[in-house]
Amino acid sequence: MHEPSPDPRPAPPTAPGSVDRHALVPPLGVRPAGDGVDVAVLASHATAVELCLVDVVDPALPAHDPARYRERRVPLAGPAYGVWHAHVPGVRPGQRYGFRVHGPWEPAAGLRHNPAKLLVDPYARGLVGELVDDPAIRGQVGDDPYGPPDPRDSLPFVPHAVVVAEPAGTLAPRPRVPWRDTVVYEAHVRGLTQRLEALPEHLRGTYAGVAHPVTIEHLRSLGVTTVELLPVHANVPEPHLLASGRTNYWGYSTLGFFAPHAAYATRDAQDAGPAAVLDEVRGMVHLLHEAGIEVLLDVVHNHTCEGGADGYHLSWRGLDNAGYYLHDGGTPARLADVTGTGNSLDFRRPAVVRAALDSLRYWAEVVGVDGFRFDLAVTLGRGATGFDPDHPFLVALQTDPVLCGLKLVAEPWDVGPGGWRTGQFPPPLAEWNDRFRDAARQFWLADAREASHGRPGHGVRDLATRLAGSADLFGHSDPPLVRGPVASVSYVTAHDGFTLADLVAYDHKHNLANGENNRDGTDDNRSWNHGLEGPVTPDATAGGVLDGLGVEIAPLRRRSIRNLLATLVLAAGTPMITAGDEMGRTQRGNNNAYVQDDETSWVSWDLSPWRKDLLATARHLLALRREHPALRPDAF
Predict the structure, then answer these.
(1) For the residues of 59-72, what is the DSSP string, one character each?
(2) Which residues pair with 413 in a beta bridge?
(3) What is the DSSP letter of 495?
(4) CA trace torsion 281, 282, 288, 290 (10° rounding)
(5) What pTM does this model have?
(6) Which of 75-84, 434-443, 541-550 has the lowest mean pLDDT?
(7) If phi over 0 gives left and psi between -120 and 50 gives alpha, with beta otherwise, what is residue 37?
(8) 231 near 250, Cβ under 8 Å?
(9) 481, 577 in Cβ contact below 8 A?
(10) CA neighbor of 376 nearest in space, from 474, 256, 254
(11) Are 232 and 363 in contact (CB under 8 A)?
């Protein structure tokens, strides 16, 4: 139930009379200020916006029961340059809230305002509640994106934003590891420690677990300087996953660019609320910094969780669909999808650029992280005519006083026209080097497979270029060569694709468990099973039956793993290791395990003898790199 305003467009609560359209407005979001909160939200095509204060009046009722909640609506003043705002007294940290937006429902023109939907604040510092698969979470009736607006109230079925006060306390200083000494370790917060029995059970799979002394000791003994965490922004499953009861384990489906994903916090922190979740994230960063380890976040600013036009109506779509999302310019208006997710944020819009920069500064200044890896970064540099290395967002990363001194890494492609741009981002950005990945796999696996059948391979030329730092990709600049080989974040595996152990055990992907009939995941793996598909011995990659063929193949596979690992660690460039590869982790041939929140994806810490040997080899190789400056050049 709710207590509606008598008029959907009354005079502003803080300044009766006419609206000053050139008013100075507070920063976007809902922030504690004096006796209440300052509120500001962008909704440039709206005719009215209400702040909805949500109270739980009967906690005994199910979360999706409307009778559980009471809603108070406060009209906002505006718009001032598209922003609606107010100071609302009496609101304290811990208050649940959302927005309801009035305006035209004209899908053919890209306008999708529907006040029946409670919308998440894009600047919310915390979220509570789960997304429920109910028709009310979509803006229109049925599956037709151009159909009439759906009148059902979405409040009981969507997450709620929560007012969070600015956290107190200082963080340990940044380690500021030079690029030439950097070793990146890509990990998933849950997957890294979920099976680490040396941790107390309540800490496994949490932010606190990442920073536990046992985890830190493993990272330090391995030689890791920098942990890159898969997305920790609040996220929800995409529509097709939610409908089937599955989840996006990787987290590339953002609902809140300022809110930490609460499910990775300890149960005590979750029960205490978003402020406690934020404290746990900050505590993780603090402890890792004390151990000399940097923290990078994988951030997904190229799209949101709302999917295509027939998808969710949770936040940006209801606030300002035409202003936030990239459209194709046609009539009727259609989303332009250059990310493969159904939507792409429109970085031609200053408001979108501002939102991304505000989020990055928040995580850098308040949470204390050391940098960011930008998912599908080409989307973030798309202007009116395609990718532009001088795009305002990329220029801002180079000039912003908060961000320019951090470690910034681009995934230099998206799925739109002209989407492959490896080597074309400006300094100080480094880039994932997919050419290194392909060359290493081709030489050690694909060419070896061909040779086993008497066929020629590709030779050593491309591998030599990658070993020397990929000057053909990263040497172009003004003046030339200023980026150096450290701009190449070199990798053989990442979260997306085969693990290192699976590269040597499978010729083909085995993704049936994902529920997509093995159609998902790449077919360009450049892997080699060494003669037999899958596991061959109990002490090899993933279990199985010991036999004569397995005895012959297992040592060859392990040698190939060592070849790949040594090539990665001893090459010029910045090496990135995928969590668990140093211990022979397997996904049983799944090269797209984004929906596998189980032992398929979690790192196994139960080490058989050969896995212990591999870990010792990894430590030795990284020690060699650390001890010999010739293996760590920062100039071509």
Answers:
(1) TTS-TT-GGGEEEE
(2) 420
(3) S
(4) -160
(5) 0.95
(6) 541-550
(7) beta
(8) yes
(9) no
(10) 254
(11) no
| Spatial separation of the C-alpha atoms in residues 194 and 601, rounded to whole Å | 10
Interacting residues of 337 by C-beta distance below 8 A, sequence separation 6+? 308, 343, 344, 415, 416
Torsion angle defined by CA atoms of residues 269, 273, 278 and 284, in that order, rounded to the nearest 10 degrees:
0
pLDDT at 361 over 90: yes
Give the integer Cα–Cα distance in Å for 233 and 464: 38
If you search the block for the tokens 């077919």, which residue do you land on?
A: 523
Classify residue 138 by its DSSP letter: B
Arithmetic mean of pLDDT, 158-162:
98
pLDDT at 548: 53
d(CA 89, CA 206): 36
Helix (H, G, I), strand (E, B) or coil at 32: strand
Torsion angle in degrees (nearest 10) through CA of 452, 453, 457, 459: 40
Q: How far apart are alpha carbons 323 and 351 in whole angstroms?
A: 8
Q: Are 37 and 88 in contact (CB under 8 A)?
A: yes
Residue 621 is predicted with a pLDDT of 98
In a 3-state reduction of DSSP, which class is residue 170?
coil
Q: Which of 161, 212, 185, 179 is nearest to 29 (CA)?
A: 161
C-alpha–C-alpha distance, residues 601 and 205, integer Å: 12
Contact 110, 146 (CB under 8 A): no
d(CA 187, CA 245): 25
Span 196-235, pLDDT tens digits: 999 999 999 999 999 999 999 999 999 999 999 999 999 9
* Angle between helical axes of 350-362 and 392-399 (0-180°, round to 10): 30
Catalytic residues: 375, 411
What letter would DSSP give residue 250? Answer: S
- Residues near 534 by beta carbon (within 8 Å), at least 6 away in sequence: 505, 506, 510, 541, 542, 544, 588, 589
- Res. 1: pLDDT tops 80: no
Q: Round to whole Å and give the CA distance between 499 and 497.
A: 7
Q: What's the chain's length in residues?
A: 636
List b or e across 295-325, with b for residues whose CB sees 16 or more CB atoms inside 10 angstroms. bbbbbbbbbbbbbebbbbbbbbbbbbbbbbb
**327: its two tokens:** 């459209």
C-alpha angle 83-84-88 in degrees, rounded to nearest 5:
135
What letter would DSSP give residue 167?
P
Q: Which helix (H) or strand (E) holds 410?
A: strand 407-410
Structure tokens that stand for 75 in this block: 């009209």
Q: Can you name the residues that pair with 161 across neighbouring β-strands? A: 97, 127
Supply angle C-alpha 199, 201, 202, rounded to 5: 110
Alpha carbons 195 and 252: distance in angstroms, whole number: 23
Whether residue 509 contacts residue 516, with contact meaning beta carbons closer than 8 Å, is answered with no
DSSP-derived letter for residue 550 is: H
Characterize 254-285 residue by residue with b for buried, 16 or more Cβ atoms within 10 angstroms of its Cβ, and e for exposed.
bbbbbbbbbbbbbeebbeebbbbbbbbbbbbb
The angle formed by the CA atoms of residues 505, 508 and 513, to the nearest 5 degrees, is: 100
Nearest to 181 by CA among 492, 620, 634: 634
Instruction: Encode pLDDT of 476-528 as tens digits.
Output: 988 899 999 999 999 999 999 999 999 999 999 999 999 999 999 999 999 99
